[in-house]
Write the structure tokens for this entry.
Amino acid sequence: MARTPTTSDAFNAVAEASRRDLLDALGTGEATVGELVDRLGLTQPQVSKHLGVLRAVGLVLVRAEGRHRWYRVNGPALKPIHDWVRTFERSWNVRLDRLDDLLAELQTEENHP
Amino acid sequence: MARTPTTSDAFNAVAEASRRDLLDALGTGEATVGELVDRLGLTQPQVSKHLGVLRAVGLVLVRAEGRHRWYRVNGPALKPIHDWVRTFERSWNVRLDRLDDLLAELQTEENHP
DNA sequence: TTGACATATTCCCATATCGGAATGTATTGT
DNA sequence: ACAATACATTCCGATATGGGAATATGTCAA
């Protein structure tokens, strides 16, 4: 077998920096392919192909209007990534870490009434 | 050029499901290669190679003890992913979304005193 | 020393990728 | 009808991948 296809899930689609740049460039709004080409300095086929991958995994949605295609981010498709990485958040988030300490302390008190 | 190497950053390293499984299996503790082989049902070379990729991007740390290697997750290496995906959180998190509404409302009131 | 054990590394191959260049397909304006 | 515009698709080649199988490296135990 080879590497997991980029179109298999959000994790693989987003691994490519250019595709993250595209999502960042779209932000909360809409943009056409041409606008994205200008903003990112990529070639038109590059942008179209990357958008194709993002669309395949549901990370972007398209709306046709004349000869333009308005792309926008489909945020919820990123939730699986957020959910997964969030389970490790305690290892660098001091606030959550201190919450752990507090809970442990309460647990101890409970054992020594 | 080809696809971005798996060892270039956390995004690419974590794109492979087996490597996420390895990180999940490690959790907050430590484990040897053999233990991970048993837990995940992968072959030993598979586990060693995947751990090699994770180590290359700093996602795991190793401690040698005799003929065993104790691996553990290096959480902070996941922070770049968390930070990036977090900027899109508003699109699915209702609480943050309502906070946006509230702020917009306050803004309107300010304009109509 | 020798053998068993734990882990890492190498070799092989089928496969998907990315970029570049060229071309295809709609849609619009004149 | 025709040219221009906006975008998608195809063909190409170089490259890294992941699994399997075999082998190498290092450590312990008798």
